[in-house]
Structure formats: structure tokens, C-alpha cells
Amino acid sequence: SSTSGAGARIAERARRVVPGGVNSGQRSVPGLTDLVITGTGGARFRTADGREFIDFHAAFGPPLLGHNDPDVARAVAEAGTSLGHMGVGVTEGEVLLAEQLVELIPSVEKILLTSTGSEATFHALRVARAATGRRLVVKFQGCYHGWHDSVSLNVISTPERVGGRDPISTGILPEVLEATLVLPFNDSEAVRAAFAAHGQDIAAVILEPVPHNVGALLPHQEFLTTLREETTRAGSVLVFDEVITGFRHHTGGWQTISGVTPDLTTFGKAMANGAPVGALGGRADLMDLFSSRPGGPTFFAGTYNGHPSVVAAALATLRKLREEPVHEHVFRLGERVRTELTALYQRLDVPAVVAGYGSVFVTYFMPGYAPGQLPGSYTDLLANDAALFVGYRRRLLEHGLFELPLNLKRSHISYAHTDDDVDRLLTATETAVRSALADGGAGDLAHTSTMGGARD
Ligand code: PMP
User: Fold this and answer.
1) Probe ligand 1: pick from 114, 139, 144, 239, max atoms within 8 Å of CB?
2) Whose alpha carbon is nearest atom 1 of ligand 1?
3) What is the CATH number of the domain that holds 206?
4) pLDDT at res. 452
5) Using a 6 Å cutoff on CB, does residue 242 contact ligand 1?
6) pLDDT (tens digit per residue) in 97-128
């Protein structure tokens, strides 16, 4: 088209003035380094090269209602004309939002707003250390909690005390990494052993209740109850990182679905449909440590926390989630995708497990799974054929469909997706998988399919 080459030119300018040409580590996707976004709306996005894609990546998850939802956009515009950011005191919008979150989410008695999910998990671990006077944090293989030091271990770190051997970043003090234990997900025995060995030193256990940073590992109910029992017995703080699961799977989070109530919960992403927000809520006695009491508060601050336009976006998103059949719609389409993809792979005789929950889906290409059987830990996912996983997604691009072509990345359905979008996904997937198989997976692109830090 007449705009062809425009993306490459802008991306080249970006690389001259922005390190790596992107503002977040996972935005530079091998094979897509000239991707320049010029417009988004509903289930679509457009590029500087004049191409349009049906978007099943959905920005790693925030736009549950679809990109640029008109009701959220209107609320943000109205807030913008009446209320600028002051940075002192409080606004009624912040109160309304907190009141609703307290009402909706079982663990939340009090809540604070941040601008990102990473800030929320940072403050969760800080206040857990403050409350317990302990040092260690337990996290799980396959889970990502942000960019800060305590959790900056590769999601594929081996399930043992890591001791700084596998950070996702340079520049971190080894003693910080050493204070983090990594355990395999869904392994109750490993949790009991860690508490037997270190229980009195464990300040917090943090997990994605569904580790979506490696696609979708569903938690065993007995694993969640073991975490609750062990943390309660040892006096450690149980943190559910619901940055992805919150609002997307249920307005009351995975804790409502599972019936297991953590002490603290972190949120982000779908909470404001894409406006920059995070939140940390939980037990009032823990949350009150953040108040500026004489004698030592746990410090919490942020120039943009509770920004009026972000609060307006969150309130409008919540209203729509409560008043319209958003979950009904995305769950129905998600179920359709999983069922029909499973049938497709059976027909093609390709060993595949289509996993996910509600609006989230991901296909792992691995043999030996009976219908309905699912992988439960990151170790299980080592059997996934990364070349095919990335290879069919690269070919989907040629059909105007976007699932992120990086290994183990999940895909998302929004309220703006239609049955027609799903039809197109199914048809294009069949063609793309057939073609990837004919070329032996990703073909010459196979070398780009390693998962690196698998963070987003
Ligand atoms: N927790 C989880 C589960 C996440 O998936 C992410 C980001 N993908 C974060 C925390 C960090 O959130 P943010 O990128 O907004 O800092």
C-alpha cells in the first residue's frame, strides 16, 4: 500500500532515541520490530503500514471491554473537563471506587491505588515484611509479579532456593534475590517442606492464582487451601496477585471463584480497561500499616495515584462489568474457541492442549494429554513445541489476526469480539497450523522462539 515502509521508518527513528526502540521489555517481538501502532478500537488495531488486525493479544490483558471502549472514553473525557489532578486530599471518585472494591472483593477491607501492577506487588511484599519482621518471600515458577527486585527472577527459575543465579535483570543485589524462594506451582508438598524448613522466616507467599504469564495453569483447589493453611499457621502473609485474573475472570477475582481468601490482593490491567492503574487491598490491620502513624508507617506514595481520569476509567469499567453481560459474552466466546480449537487439532491429528479460563485461551503443542487433562506446572510446559507455538502465530499475521508470536503467551477475548471474529480465528488457525507443520514449525524463525524472561 502507499503507506508501506512507514512502520520501518518510524521504528528506525525510535531505535535512535529509545533504547531498543520500545518502552517495555516485551514489546520488541522478534520478526515484528517494525510494528508501529497508529489506532485501536474494539477488537482491532491498525499499523503505520496501513494494516488492520483482529487483536487476540489485547495489550497483555487490560482491554476486557475492547480497545477504546466508548463508555470508558466518555467518562475519562468528562473527568478531564471538570477535574484536574491536584495531588492533595482526596476526591469523591476515589472513595466511590474504594467502596465498590471493598464490596466486591472478599479479601479487601481497605484498598490503595497505584499506577501499575508492579507497584502494587512491591508494596504488598514491603508491608508483609513490615508486619511480620521477616525476610523471605515465596514465589512460584511460571508467575510474574513485576519488575522490582524481590520478584525479578526468571519465571522459569528452577524450583529451589535460587541464590541470585537466575534473575531477569542485572543490577540486583544478590542478597535481595537470595531472600526469594521459588517453588513449583500446584506442588503442596513443596510448600509444606518450605514452611517446615523456613516457616518462621517467611514474610509472604505471592502467586498468580492462575499463572497466566506462562499461558494458563489452573490451580488445584487443594493447592490453594494448603497455601492458606500453611501461611495462617506460620503467620505469613498470603498475597494473591490478581493483576490478570482480577475483573477479567470475575468482578470478585479468583478468590471469589475459588473461595480461598488471601490476606492481600494486587490488581491492575482490566480494572480500568487500559488506563494506567494498579491497586493493593486486603486486611485492614495490614493496610493500616500504610497510614502515616507516628512511630513508623510503611511508606506508600505516588504522584499519580488516584488520578481523576484513571479513577473515572475504573468506575466506568466497573459499572459496565456489573450492568452489562460482559462476562457472559467473553466466557461464551472463550468456551467456543477452546472447544472448537480442540476439535480442530483432533481433526488435524496434532497433539495439542487447549487451555485457559473464561476469556483467556492458549494452545500448547504437547503430546500425551487425554481430552480435558491440563498441564499443572511450568515443568509440564517444557514439552510444548515452541517452534510450532510461535510458527503458527507468525503465519496468523498474514491473515490479519494477532496472537502474540512469543512462546507461552496467552490470548484474550474482549466484549468487543464477535462470533465472526472467532470464526475468522478458527479458519485462519487451521491454515496457519497446516502451513507451519508443512515447514517444520517456525522454519527459519525457530531460533527466535525461546521464552527469555516470559514477562509482560
Ligand atoms: N502481576 C502480574 C500477574 C502481571 O501479569 C503483571 C504484568 N503483566 C504485573 C504484576 C505487573 O504489572 P505492571 O506491568 O502494570 O507493572
Assistant:
1) 144
2) 145
3) 3.40.640.10
4) 39
5) no
6) 999 999 999 999 999 999 999 999 999 999 99
Which residue is catalytic, options 269, 345, 364, 378?
A: 269
139 noted as active-site residue: no
Alpha carbon of 295 to ligand 1 centroid (Å): 32
Work out how many domains the chain is built from and give that number: 2
Q: Is 345 in the pocket of ligand 1 (CB under 6 A)?
A: no
CA-wise closest residue to 156 among 117, 165, 28, 147: 165
| Sign of the alpha-carbon dihedral angle for 120, 121, 122, 125 | positive
Same domain (yes/no): 56, 89: no
**d(C-alpha 174, C-alpha 177), whole Å:** 5
**Can you read off the three cell numbers belonging to residue 28?**
520488541
What are the tens digits of pLDDT across the range 255-286?
999 999 999 999 999 999 999 999 999 999 99
> Would the pLDDT of 401 be above 50?
yes
pLDDT at 446 over 60: no
**Which of 122, 239, 244 is the pocket-test mutation for ligand 1 (most atoms within 8 Å of CB)?**
244
Determine the Cα–Cα distance for residues 21 and 33; give it in Å rounded to an integer: 8
Radius of gyration of the chain (CA): 22
Q: Whole-angstrom Cα distance, residue 160 to residue 174?
A: 15
Angle at 424 between CA 422 and CA 426, to 5 degrees: 70
341: buried, middle or exposed (CB in 10 Å: 19+, 13-18, 0-12)? Answer: buried
CB atoms within 10 A of CB 143: 23
Sheet holding 353-357, edge to edge: 353-357, 360-364, 411-412
Mean pLDDT of the chain: 93
Last residue of a domain, one of 280, 306, 323: 323
Count of CB atoms situated within 10 Å of the CB of 123: 25
ipTM over 0.95: yes
Check if 55 has its Cβ closer than 6 Å to any atom of ligand 1. Answer: no
* Beta-carbon-side half-sphere exposure of residue 151 (alpha carbons within 13 Å): 29
55, 241, 263, 380: which one is catalytic?
Answer: 241
| Boundary of a domain, candidates 304, 323, 342 | 323
Q: Is residue 454 included in any domain, yes or no?
A: no
